[in-house]
Amino acid sequence: MALFSMDLNSLRDLFIDELRDLYDAENQITEALPKLIEKTTYPQLKSALQEHLQVTRGQIRRLEQIFSRLNEKPTGESCKGMKGLIKEGDDMASRDGSEAAIDAGIISAAQRVEHYEMAGYGTVRTYADLLGEKEFANLLQQTLDEEKEADVKLTEIAKTINVQAKAA
Ligand SMILES: [Fe+2]
Questions:
Q1: Which domains are seen in the chain, by residue range?
Q2: What's 10's DSSP letter?
Q3: 3 state DSSP class of 105
Q4: How far is the CA of 168 from the centre of ligand 1 (A)?
């Protein structure tokens, strides 16, 4: 949340605030993903994370598009929730042990990130609807759909990796 607190006087204020929070969260993710991509040994997981890195860059551009239309700057928030989630993923990727168990742990951390984002995007999409900002709502819905898709893909990959981790 905010580095310094500004008054929240309207849903529009809250909308901008939460978009900034998501903007910071997405930027943290683009910094953090390469380490996880490097660490994972499972090809399907590696390519899913690589693909999500590309998708995330597009999501950042979508947010920038919204901010430019709003005539507001995208920076100014620090997403502490994402910081914590990423720290957990980093810790997981630094562990020694069974490759399958570590990969399963990376998926677990990545799915926490996806769910956190889904909550955030669902909220701002709803605010955009309420504010009559149909174009913003559509852009945010696209991102929400991508996050859901990433989550489903991770669940699919986990089905194999969890079993390998169990057998390790
Ligand atoms: Fe994202």
A1: 11-167 (1.20.1260.10)
A2: S
A3: helix
A4: 32
